[in-house]
Amino acid sequence: MPRIVTGPFYPTLELALVDEVRSLKSGDPFASLAIIVPSTPLANRIKRFLAIESQLSLINCSIMTFHQFALRLRDDLLAGGEPLPPMQLVDDFYFEQVVRHVVEQKLPGLEIMGRLPPAPGTWSALWSTLRDLKDAAVVPSTVLNAVTEGLFEKEDSPWLQALFLLEAAVLEGSRFAGRRLGR
């Protein structure tokens, strides 16, 4: 039966999670368990916290993001012959390419992004940053206003402005294309 536990992440939720995993695994150390979190960095933190810091066994324990969970559900539906809902999920590679394409268009305000190295890891890192900003509910227009009001260091302003213009462009482009920003 799914259970949802809420509260301040550190330390309340971490300690509650340890207690919950211990409780669920106490009768059967091979019991299946799924932990769904909003972001990859948080999934990595939970894995490290449970396995290393709390010394819990993660056998048959899946720790995945909402996006990974949605993909797993889709795969299960397909394997069971179920019809898929009319929603299209795309993976990180899609959005990495969207970011690359937007930067390569040299749109006004994004010229500084042309200094970034054209390596594949660049687009992955940039997409990861934009996804984290989206997950943190950072509104690009609010930060852009703060940049123009001089609330950040002068040398950081061009990069911050470009980053949040890029975020706004990717968000708008994904809305236009009907894509869900995924994990």
Sum this structure up briefly.
This protein has 183 residues and is mainly alpha-helical. Helices cover 57% and strands 5% of the residues. The chain folds into two domains: 9-79, no CATH class; 92-177, no CATH class.
As an assembly, this protein is single chain
Rg, Å, rounded:
20 Å
Low-confidence stretches: none
Overall pLDDT, averaged?
84
Count of extended strands: 2
**Number of domain modules:** 2
Count of helix runs: 7
Please give the share of residues in helix. 55-70%
Return the string of H and E elements. Answer: HEHEHHHHH
Pairing-aware structural class of the strands and helices?
mainly alpha
How far the N terminus sits from the C terminus, by CA atoms, comes to 24 Å
Largest beta-sheet characterization: 2 strands, parallel
* Widest β-sheet, arrangement of strands: 1-2
Gross geometry: globular
- Beta-strand share of residues: 5-15%
How would you explain this protein's 3D organization?
With 183 residues, the protein is mainly α. It contains 7 helices and 2 strands. The radius of gyration is 20 Å and the shape is globular. The mean pLDDT is 84.
Detail the topology: elements first, then pairings.
Elements: H1 9-26, E1 33-37, H2 40-53, E2 61-65, H3 66-79, H4 92-104, H5 120-135, H6 140-148, H7 157-177
Parallel strand pairs: 1-2
Helix pairs in contact: 4-5, 4-7, 6-7
